[in-house]
Write a structure and sequence with these properties.
two-stranded parallel ribbon, globular, TIM Barrel, 9 helices, binds zinc ion
Amino acid sequence: MKWNKCILLCAVLLSVVLTGCAAETTMSQSTENSAPAGSAAEPVKTEQTDVTETDTFIPQGDKYIALTFDDGPTGNEDGCTERLLDGLKERNAHATFFLCGYRMKDFNSMMERYLTEGHEIGNHTTDHIRLDIDTADGGLEQISSNQEHIAAYTGEAPTLMRPVGGAYNDAVLASMKQLGLPVILWNVDTLDWKYHDDADIVRQRIIDNAADGVIVLEHDLYEATVDGVLAAIDELQQQGYAFVTVSELAQLKGVTLEPGKVYTGFTSKDVVVDHGSNFS
Ligand SMILES: [Zn+2]
């Protein structure tokens, strides 16, 4: 009996010890499990932070303007385009950049910034040539090859294009329809291609022609353009304007952009602006 009691007691003690160990193991596993769960939560948080950092919100205002910049990118880290992107970011302003394929070979440090900072990229041909007179296929090759150049850097092909010099004919429109691209011109020309050392002309022409729904032409080729545009944004934001991409402006105005069709702006019919050139 004594032995039996002893064995029974030992068995009970062993069982208590084992249960205790098991409980500890479970707790320990559960603690370990919660640790990885905690670390797993961090990447999720990081991911959410990244999503927040990608600027997908349309800037809000009483009136809207689409600033557009042709012929870039220009320079790398300390260049014109990067400085412009910095200035737009500081001001929560979006813009549309009509890029040339040949420029991206030399200047590509900013390629990831455009889309993550809420801007839009448009197609401005691979070699910056006139589609109406210098191509035999209505620009098919120039535009489709540049779609590929841009997508190789950004992962996305543009959904709109601007012909060089704003010049097009029926063959160009047919080609753009085939490629699924609306043709975007402008109704305010800053004339920075002509007065490219004078920031004040750029600033003044934007201020003078500011109206809800305008598309403004600039080139991120000149430092004066960057200075003039940023100064104009500061002034016009005080007047209730917000700066959006061409596609955002179309959306805000209830316009569906159609391939092969030409758009110069989304102003109401009574607005008269000085577009400054005959799109040439
Ligand atoms: Zn151009």
